[in-house]
Amino acid sequence: MNQELENLIRKHYQENFANKKIVPGKNTIPASGKFFGAEELVAMTQAVLEGWWTEGRYAEEFENKFAGWLGVKYCTTTNSGSSANLIAVAALTSFRLGEKRLKPGDEVITIAAGFPTTVNPLIVNQLVPVFVDIEIETLNIKADDLEKAVSQKTKAVILPHNIGNAFNLKAVKALCEKRQLWLIEDCCDALGTTYDGKLVGTFGDLATFSFYAGHHMAMGEGGAVVTSDEFLNRIVRSVRDWGRDCQCKTGHDNTCGKRFVWKLGDLPEGYDHKFIFSEIGYNLRITDIQAALGLVQLEKLPIFTQRRKDNFSYLLNKLKEFEKYFILPKAENLSEPSWFGFYLTLKPNCPFKRFDLVQFLETNKILTRLILAGNLCRQPYFLNYNVKYRKADNLANTDIVMNNSFWVGCYHGLNKEHMEYIYQNIKKFIDQYDDR
């Protein structure tokens, strides 16, 4: 890219984005959002000008840098976190895994108080979700209930680090090792969170991430599957790339020197390896344009993470005065979260309803969100499609969160001024009911 064009891009950023501010009371405070500078626009434009556009050198560079930053051996980029979950689950159904593969009817432990695309890959692969209840303070699985969820059919665990809070990995890992279960960490809402000093995504057999525009770092759309197992990584990449048996990089042919010597399936001997498909696969790759954006955002991730932590901490300290009304969020033991949002749960004796508080905040230009799907078992599609699942208990806390919890933004595009405005509005609402 010549300097003249780069200068024009930077000028465009200054004129259209640099001075855009979220003014509390005047502009809506988002629950989440993207945060970027001129360098992201320059990087994406450079990728466009190179003319490759599909997955290429930028994607490969991002995969290498992300794996290195995380501390795993392999990263496979995807077009979304949802696709990453689909690939991770599908990979564990591969014939290549022999008796360890997940088969139709096998059970997988998870939670109902999460996002549908953690669980949907189980359903489409004819696996049976087994739902365990959560703790209200952490929004994560009740570790004491794990063992009772296990049956002879249990073969895996897939759990999200809910709203950025790492689940009890010590207990979950112990169960998986004891019972020889696969573990998938869904880190889509928890990029940058650590557990016992290690980044989440490094504990499971596989882990997934999302780089959606409203997440911890952005590619617009994007995601990743990571692992340190070379064999699993090969399956993951095959599932992502149409199920193709060939492992050549995009734009490369015959890197193994055996392109026309294979005899697989009932195909004729010598059938082009680039068109031999051994897995049930998809096309779920990113573009180099997204990867170029991701490379710049990855460099800024430590700053983004600290801002999220600071915003969350500020709001938590301010809202402690209202513990009479709220169950406040709590980090899981050994977890240092990169919080996705700041969540509150109304106590049973609360004199007001969630609906009224949420409407008050929304009217005052503070966007709110519920705890994702609430209770998946109660979602219309579970009923409409007669989804097969099992509950390890009555999911009482899951229902409480569904009915009484919500969250507001603490993302890295916000600051102390926004947190104070959120606090002041919650206080203003509560003052109507407070008898102090």
Q: Could you characterize what this model shows?
A:
- This is Lipopolysaccharide biosynthesis protein RfbH.
- One of its GO terms (molecular function) is pyridoxal phosphate binding.
- This protein is an alpha/beta fold and 436 residues long.
- It folds into two domains: 41-290, Aspartate Aminotransferase, domain 2 (3-Layer(aba) Sandwich), CATH 3.40.640; 301-430, Aspartate Aminotransferase, domain 1.
- The chain contains 13 helices and 15 strands.
- It has an eight-stranded mixed sheet, with helices on both faces.
- Helix 2 (38-50) packs antiparallel against helix 9 (288-319), helix 4 packs parallel to helix 5 and helix 9 (288-319) packs across helix 13 (416-430).
- The radius of gyration is 23 Å and the shape is globular.
SSE ordering? HHHEHEHEHEHEEEEEHHEEEHEHEHEH
CATH fold descriptor of the largest domain: Aspartate Aminotransferase, domain 2
Strand order of the largest sheet: 1-9-8-5-4-2-3-14
Report on the biggest sheet: 8 strands, mixed
Distance between the termini: 64 Å
The secondary-structure class comes to alpha/beta
Number of helices: 13
Pfam families: DegT_DnrJ_EryC1 (PF01041)
Family: Belongs to the DegT/DnrJ/EryC1 family.
Protein name: Lipopolysaccharide biosynthesis protein RfbH
Organism: Candidatus Buchananbacteria bacterium RIFCSPHIGHO2_02_FULL_45_11b
